[in-house]
Design brief:
alpha+beta, Immunoglobulin-like, 60s Ribosomal Protein L30, Chain: A, 2 domains, four-stranded antiparallel beta sheet, 6 helices, 19 strands
């Protein structure tokens, strides 16, 4: 693949040089110097100066995240321009020493940087999944070498700001990233509670177990936004009963080793717990999370249906001790 990249550069570079020479002779000029690009009578700005601090002061909507991609001034061939893609949509072909910004929907985002010189238009090449929280700004550092090999690494704002102070905003390409974010949950249907003792503060008379119906990808522990609705119902139920605490229990089927399944179930319930805290404002003191792995099946692991029933996340809600 890397050999093909070199051949592509050679194949593209020679005709480009010949074309540039002949164009200058015939129509009076191609000018690629400085901040502008000009072919005959058509001229456009390639990059502009921006005050990144002013940009970052602008608020990001709660259902979106701001993404900032930064590339070092490596001075390699234009064939190493980094095709930045967000969820299989083209953002920009990022040149050395520039940066670009775009907003995308909160939740799981697929980000990638792939060299222009490969000429395969594969926007998902070398992609990585990132869980992005709404209203936040995220910074990513793009590194390309002379062979077009790329890395995309998330960095902190403390590391990003010094880099951005030395970079210019790349403005000459039109982004295809459109954050058509799904509407937020308008209403939450409350869970019908069991009979309770009539007091000034509602008291949960008996323990309640709620199936959260959260599904995970194989070997992953990221809660996708489409499962937030059931978690939101749990958060609302906890508001109705402010003296309750919740234990989130995670279970797997029997495939895989016992210790692996236990660790996977723990990572998943920890992820659900974090969603309750970060997305719905539930106090961490009211939450605990326990992964049981495959130790507590509720159906046979010998069938597909049974294994599906055993892969579950449930919330056990009960009154706080001493109330």
């Amino acid at each position: 693949m890397r050999k093909g990249f070199k051949n592509t550069i050679a194949a593209v570079a020679l005709p480009s040089v010949l074309f540039a020479m002949s164009s200058c002779a015939m129509i009076g000029g191609i000018d690629n110097e400085g901040n502008t690009r000009r072919v005959d009578g058509v001229m456009w700005h390639n990059q502009t100066d921006t005050d990144i601090n002013d940009v970052l002061k602008k608020e990001v909507a709660s259902d979106k995240a701001r993404l900032v991609f930064i590339r070092e001034d490596d001075d390699y061939s234009e064939q190493t321009s980094a095709n930045i893609a967000v969820n299989n949509r083209f953002q920009v072909s990022l040149h050395a020493g520039n940066y670009t910004m775009v907003e995308s929907c909160a939740g799981i985002n697929q980000l990638s940087a792939h060299a222009t010189g490969f000429k395969n238009n594969n926007l998902l090449a070398d992609k990585e999944d990132y869980a992005l929280t709404g209203g936040q700004t995220y910074f990513f550092h793009i590194n390309m070498n002379e062979k077009g090999q790329s890395t995309l690494e998330q960095i902190t704002s403390q590391n990003a700001l010094p880099l951005l102070s030395q970079k210019r905003y790349q403005s000459h390409q039109i982004s295809r990233v459109v954050p058509n974010c799904p509407p937020s949950i308008a209403t939450i249907q409350p869970i019908t509670p069991p009979p309770m003792v009539e007091t000034q503060t509602p008291v949960l008379a008996e323990k309640v177990t709620i199936d959260l119906e959260v599904l995970f990808e194989t070997d992953k522990a990221i809660v996708r936004p489409e499962y937030y609705a059931k978690i939101a119902e749990l958060a609302e139920f906890m508001k109705q009963y402010p003296n309750t605490v919740v234990t989130i229990e995670g279970h797997t089927d029997s495939r895989g080793k016992d210790d692996y399944n236990q660790a996977l179930s723990q990572r998943r319930v920890d992820a659900v717990k974090q969603v309750l805290i970060s997305q719905f404002g539930v106090s961490v003191e009211r939450l605990s999370a326990i992964g049981y792995g495959e130790s507590q099946p509720r159906a046979s692991n010998d069938t597909v249906e049974g294994r599906q029933l055993n892969r579950r996340v449930v919330a056990v809600v009960e009154e706080r001790s001493g109330n």
